[in-house]
């Protein structure tokens, strides 16, 4: 509502919420570092509390307003100044304290004292004050927070949610807050402590084969434990009497020694169905549209990738200001349009989930193999024994020279994911038959090749082949170092049996495959396949230990009959890209091709 009387100067810009109470409360925080930040628009509902910690100032819930940060400060100064003459007479200590606060706030507003401002009154008694954001006077920095249990308040961000001076945190309301909002009756008390203990003892615990269990208590609150690499407890409340529903996600494990960053390249709509667990400590970034959610934003969520993007779009589109500077409005509408494009996967994008406590996860549909579009390969390799300072896996974004130039050098191995179907499947069979009948040029006998005998483990084979045959630094006594020592002198089939019977390696395989996901599906039927390319000298050069001998590209695929020579190599990465471009893509025109390189670590 907006009202202004031309006769007496009375104004009213009260906001009354017509929407529903949100499932979670919100805490908006903005750092006011420059006078331009005072122009940030603010929606303050009647249930919100405004806090300015630097001045120990708390404004309790009052009428709703559509205003600015400057408007809130002016209202405080006006309201506190109203009774100051009376306080000066009746309670001088209180007057002194309040006047000290008023003087500090006036430094923000850059206003002159009341006696001088009195001279600027217009004909209807309104004091004309210049906008504080236009003043050139220095301003003390401060923080403004709006805590709204109903979730209906808002502080404007600049340009987009990547604004470094703006933050949104969502939280679960306390019982007292639910009572204040009218969601729970004030006299609706819980049972006595003894009854609660008895009820908890009677709670039913159930489990299923998916690796989760839950308990349902007498208050209708259920706790479900999902076994990810670390347990996560999802607590939900569903009141049968009033229909109130709520859910909350908490970690069920100790704080991890290291954080987790999950990077997913989203290229088609199938990726939107991936289960996503975002803890309350996780941040989310989509760099293509400069979308940044700081840790705490949206709280904890167990949903899908589509669900989290829909929620972000809904939150922003409902809170967007439709009035104000046209340039700001157009920029925000442009941002929402870009968000809608990636939400519908009309353009590829990258999702980055960054959790310092390692309690967030993203489903891997390729499990038990590592996800080619999700960066967990380095975690697998490092656990196996790769020394990170020597080499790391990095994405290869395309086969053009400009994109290949972005990969750090030297490149020591390439792992390729591609679909085996149609013409390519037929060509592979024909090539196997030809090689059995005609043979090929001798291949470096020191290469370690493993015959794949484990179902759906071609990704593991690809990573092992790349690490064992690229002369990268391996930590002594690591699982990979021990495996290499034991694999020497054994046949490919014996190496496969060794891999199957090495418990430590099996644990790493299962852990890395499920990293960032729920329990891996069994008997996954997929035609996607991993293979590996390494560089090696000719067999004769290896036998004579000739250092200047010709180098060859060798493909190591556990699903074939053995290593395959793919020709001469002068520039390894470019030569592999040329082979893929000339021999794989023509027979597999699919967007599901994905490539990573084992290369020098990024600085």
TrEMBL record:
Which InterPro entries is this protein grouped with? Papain-like_cys_pep_sf, Peptidase_C12_UCH, Peptidase_C12_UCH_sf, Znf_ZPR1, ZPR1, ZPR1_A/B_dom, ZPR1_jr_dom, ZPR1_Znf1/2
- One example GO MF annotation: cysteine-type deubiquitinase activity
Q: Does the keyword Metal-binding apply?
A: yes
In terms of PROSITE patterns, this protein maps to: UCH_DOMAIN
Q: Where is this region: Disordered?
A: 119-141, 190-221
GO terms of biological process kind: ubiquitin-dependent protein catabolic process
Question: Which enzyme class, named as a word?
Answer: hydrolase
Q: Which residues form the active site?
A: 458, 529
Sorted alphabetically, the keyword list is:
Hydrolase, Metal-binding, Protease, Thiol protease, Ubl conjugation pathway, Zinc, Zinc-finger
Q: Which GO terms describe its cellular component?
A: nucleus
Q: Mark the transmembrane ranges.
A: none
> What range(s) does the UCH catalytic domain occupy?
365-600
Which reaction(s) does the protein catalyse, per the Swiss-Prot or TrEMBL entry? Thiol-dependent hydrolysis of ester, thioester, amide, peptide and isopeptide bonds formed by the C-terminal Gly of ubiquitin (a 76-residue protein attached to proteins as an intracellular targeting signal)
Kindly list the residues the record flags as site (Important for enzyme activity).
Answer: 557
For the site labelled Transition state stabilizer, the residues are 452
Keyword Hydrolase found: yes
Please note every region of biased composition (Polar residues). Answer: 192-204
Task: Please state the Enzyme Commission number of this protein.
Answer: 3.4.19.12
The record's similarity note reads:
Belongs to the peptidase C12 family.
**The protein's name:** ubiquitinyl hydrolase 1
Native organism is: Hericium alpestre
């Amino acid at each position: 509502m907006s009202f202004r009387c031309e006769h007496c100067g009375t104004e009213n810009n009260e906001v009354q919420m017509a929407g529903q109470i949100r499932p979670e409360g919100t805490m908006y925080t903005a750092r006011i570092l420059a006078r331009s930040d005072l122009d940030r628009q603010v929606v303050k509902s009647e249930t919100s509390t405004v806090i300015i910690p630097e001045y120990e100032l708390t404004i309790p819930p009052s009428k709703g307003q559509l205003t600015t940060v400057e408007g809130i400060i002016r209202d405080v100064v006006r309201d506190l100044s109203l009774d100051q003459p009376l306080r000066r007479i009746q309670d001088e200590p209180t007057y002194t304290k309040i006047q000290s606060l008023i003087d500090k706030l006036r430094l923000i507003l850059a206003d002159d004292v009341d006696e001088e401002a009195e001279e600027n009154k217009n004909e209807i008694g309104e004091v004309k004050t210049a906008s504080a954001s236009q003043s050139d006077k220095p301003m003390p920095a401060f923080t403004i927070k709006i805590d709204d249990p109903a979730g209906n308040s808002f502080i404007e961000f600049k340009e987009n949610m990547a604004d470094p001076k703006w933050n949104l945190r969502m939280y679960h309301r306390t019982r007292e807050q639910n009572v204040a909002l009218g969601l729970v009756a004030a006299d609706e008390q819980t049972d006595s402590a003894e009854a609660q203990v008895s009820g908890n003892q009677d709670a039913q615990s159930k489990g299923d084969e998916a690796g989760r269990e839950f308990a349902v208590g007498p208050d209708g609150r259920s706790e479900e434990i999902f076994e990810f690499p670390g347990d996560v407890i999802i607590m939900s409340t569903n009141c049968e009497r009033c229909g109130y529903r709520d859910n909350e996600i908490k970690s069920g494990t100790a704080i991890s020694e290291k954080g987790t960053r999950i990077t997913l390249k989203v290229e088609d709509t199938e990726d939107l169905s991936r289960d996503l667990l975002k803890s309350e400590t996780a941040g989310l970034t989509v760099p293509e549209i400069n979308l940044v959610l700081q840790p705490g934003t949206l709280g904890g969520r167990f949903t899908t990738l589509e669900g989290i993007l829909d929620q972000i779009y809904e939150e922003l589109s409902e809170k967007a200001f439709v009035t104000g500077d046209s340039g700001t409005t157009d920029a925000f509408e442009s941002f929402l349009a870009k968000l809608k494009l990636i939400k519908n996967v009309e353009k590829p994008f990258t999702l980055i989930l960054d959790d310092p406590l390692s309690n967030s996860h993203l489903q891997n549909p390729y499990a038990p193999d590592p996800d080619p579009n999700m960066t967990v390969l380095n975690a697998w390799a490092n656990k196996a024994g790769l020394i990170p300072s020597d080499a790391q896996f990095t994405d290869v974004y395309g086969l053009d020279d400009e994109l290949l130039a972005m990969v750090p050098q030297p490149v020591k191995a390439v792992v390729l994911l591609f679909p085996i179907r149609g013409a390519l499947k037929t060509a592979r069979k024909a090539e196997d038959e030809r090689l059995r009948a005609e043979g090929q040029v001798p291949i470096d006998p020191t290469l370690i090749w493993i015959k794949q005998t484990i179902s759906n483990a071609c990704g593991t084979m690809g990573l092992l082949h790349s690490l064992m045959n690229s002369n990268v630094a391996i930590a002594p006594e690591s699982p990979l170092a021990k495996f290499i020592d034991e694999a020497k002198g054994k046949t490919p089939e014996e190496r496969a049996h060794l891999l199957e019977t090495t418990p430590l390696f099996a644990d790493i395989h299962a852990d890395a495959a499920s990293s960032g996901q729920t329990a891996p599906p069994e008997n996954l039927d997929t035609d996607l396949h991993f293979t590996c390319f390494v560089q090696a000298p000719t067999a004769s050069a290896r036998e004579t230990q000739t250092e200047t001998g010709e180098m060859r590209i060798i493909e190591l695929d556990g699903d074939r009959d053995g290593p395959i020579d793919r020709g001469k190599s002068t520039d390894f990465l470019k030569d592999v890209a040329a082979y893929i471009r000339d021999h794989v893509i023509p027979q597999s025109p699919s967007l599901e091709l994905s490539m990573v390189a084992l290369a020098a670590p990024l600085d």
